[in-house]
Amino acid sequence: MRTITATMFITLDGVVQGLGRPDEDTRGGFPYGGWGLRYNDEVMTRELGKGMARAGDLLFGRRTWEDFSKAWGNATDGNPYTALMNAATKYVVSRSLHDASAWQNSILLRGEAAERVAELKAQPGGDLAINGSASLVRSLHAAGLVDHLTLLIHPLTLGTGTRLFEGPAPLTEFDLTGSVTTTKGVVIAHYRRTR
């Protein structure tokens, strides 16, 4: 059976919204877009590179897939992440998306996320990696489908914004399997769901 690893950039108060750019996700009037950029360093780049090298197929919610397809889908910048992102098989889970042809190697999984991903997870194939897609991670976590979490815990609070676990989440225990602290104080913590 495939495993699912979710990688999330998160603040000390649990916010996961809009870390990359000011216009990334302004839902609810979120004013702090781009909060994560000043924390990037060589340690984070190296650790994320290790994760990308291990990743099999990618799994996205609709919003993140649309954003990533615009950013990576037509890029020809020589960045090794660009080549990995474009070559990978990408599954996008959505009830509203009608077509996934905007980004090469993308496959649309229509319907309820937990049901469709459980079916995908049971099929033979490479492990699945989620980058971002907080709503998808929440839904899959609630269904017991997330096997590993990598949290990039940033040393700041925002006080507002979408949090990783909003609303009820099931009691779930994780073992810490490793951690690294970057030069800018981001703790990259790797967790494995306790069975």
TrEMBL record:
Pfam families, per the entry: RibD_C
Stored InterPro entries: DHFR-like_dom_sf, RibDG_C, Riboflavin_Biosynth_HTPR
Superkingdom, taxonomy of origin: Bacteria
SUPFAM superfamilies per the UniProt record, alphabetical: Dihydrofolate reductase-like
Bacterial bifunctional deaminase-reductase C-terminal domain span: 2-187
PANTHER family linked: BIFUNCTIONAL DEAMINASE-REDUCTASE DOMAIN PROTEIN, DIHYDROFOLATE REDUCTASE FAMILY PROTEIN (AFU_ORTHOLOGUE AFUA_8G06820)
Name this protein carries in UniProt: Dihydrofolate reductase family protein
Organism: Paractinoplanes globisporus
